[in-house]
Amino acid sequence: MTEGIEKLIVAIDTDDFDKAKELIDKLEDSVDIFKVGLEQYVATRGKTVDYLKEKGKKIFLDLKFHDIPNTMKSAVKAAVRDNVWLMTIHVSDMEGMKQCAQIAKEEAERLNIEKPLIVGVTVLTSLSNEDLQDIGCNMTTEELAIKRAKLAKEAGIDGVVCSAKEVDKIVKECGEDFVTVCPGIRPETSEVGDQKRVVTPADAIKKGAHYLVVGRPITKSEDPKKSALDIVREIENA
Ligand SMILES: O=C(O)c1cc(=O)[nH]c(=O)n1[C@@H]1O[C@H](COP(=O)(O)O)[C@@H](O)[C@H]1O
User: Fold this and answer.
1) Which segments does the entry list as coiled coil (predicted)?
2) How far apart are CA 215 and CA 232, in angstroms?
3) Which residue out of 210, 213, 218 has the highest number of ligand 1 atoms within 8 Å of its CB and is therefore the one to mutate?
4) In 55-208, where do the E strands start and end?
5) What is residue 7's predicted lDDT score, i.e. its pLDDT?
6) Whose CA is nearest to atom 4 of ligand 1?
7) Residues within the annotated binding site for substrate?
8) pLDDT band at 2; cut points 50, 70, 90
């Protein structure tokens, strides 16, 4: 497998299992990691996770848990049973994150499976500085993302989801081994849509992102396989 394929995560955002299956089948030779998010998981009750397992693919379960510590911890414990590669929580209070890190380890040991990576969402890539002001936060997206990444590291989770706009600073603060997953990736010619902090695949890699999450630029393309391969090539050239 090439280095580019190892860094690309494709977001299967559809509410239809057959469409998800069709996309996975089209992309299976050029993509190794697929993200099952809220829309697809809720609509299919997790059926796509089983399909991806049958195909031997790596699974990013993106359910972004955010709740009181006991509920977050219990949700992580249940999700570990899906035996996925990586899953998301929101960066929240220290107690909640610590309990998620701990239970993931314990449950994986009990089941004798590899512990999934637990990563915390810092500041959604659809948010701007103005959006943060509107919801009562007087920090910039970059300041808040760095602060939350440091909290996530202190709590003992494996990494964060962040925009590639701030990933270089997060790597500098939290170290090379702290996993960085960057959505809001847009090749030069792609539509931005609802994303506000976007970066090209090449620039995201140059800034130190470990993994790039790409949805619509691949899934809404007339030729998803070609679009995925173009991004893999751009990653490799960077
Ligand atoms: O956790 C995520 O994956 C996520 C965090 C974030 O800050 N921004 C973000 O876009 N995402 C997800 O990444 C994917 C991006 O999709 P596209 O905008 O279509 O490339 C979607 O599935 C989002 O749910």
Assistant:
1) none
2) 14
3) 213
4) 58-65, 86-90, 117-121, 159-161, 179-182
5) 97
6) 183
7) 13, 35, 62-71, 125, 186, 195, 215-216
8) confident
C-beta separation of 160 from 152 below 8 A: yes
Catalytic site positions: 62, 64, 67
Tell me how far the alpha carbon of residue 35 lies from the centroid of ligand 1, in angstroms: 9
Q: Which two tokens stand for residue 105?
A: 């380890």
Write down the mean pLDDT value for the chain.
97
User: 70: CA distance to ligand 1 center in Å?
Assistant: 26
Q: Are 192 and 136 in contact (CB under 8 A)?
A: no
Q: Is the pLDDT of residue 1 over 80?
A: no
Sequence spans of domains, the chain: 3-237
**Which tens digit of pLDDT belongs to each residue from 163-213?**
999 999 999 999 999 999 999 999 998 999 999 999 999 999 999 999 999
The superfamily in CATH containing domain 3-237 is Aldolase class I (3.20.20.70)
ipTM here:
0.99
Question: Could you give the CA distance from residue 220 to residue 18 in angstroms, rounded to a whole number?
Answer: 15
Rounded Cα distance between 212 and 231, Å, is 10
Q: Determine the Cα–Cα distance for residues 123 and 28; give it in Å rounded to an integer.
A: 30
184 CA → ligand 1 middle, Å: 6
Mean pLDDT of 129-136: 97
